[in-house]
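Please describe the entry underneath.
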Amino acid sequence: MTSIEQLLNFSNPIFKSYVFWTGVLVIKTLGMSLLTASQRFKTKTFANPEDLMSPKLKVKFDDPNVERVRRAHRNDLENILPFFIIGLLYTLTNPSAFLAITLFRVVGIARIVHTLVYAVVVVPQPARALSWFAAYGATIYMAVQVVLTAAF
């Protein structure tokens, strides 16, 4: 049996990969706030009266460019946060290094692609759906493995 100290250690390539991709996705998710702010300034769409840059501007909540970025950000929060939890728990199941590292890469790259095709350079479907399903499928697979390992 492998100890937790051996699994949650930077000498374990699975844990090291998990930490790397978690860091990348934290930076990516935080970047969504900057992308939202950029869209707000670009379109002069502000949700609070104190943020208005001119007395001629009005509070506005429905700019399609701002709302697209906000939806992409919300989608990150709905999908990346579960990966943070299940990815760490999956590491504790002592999975195959190749499979675990591949799953972490799939989630990380798919979430980056999802943002690019949804909020940066809008690409028609199925680009967004495919990137979402790739990350979602990998996360579900890890969750099932965690449940099966914990149950038996």
About this structure: The chain has a mean pLDDT of 94.
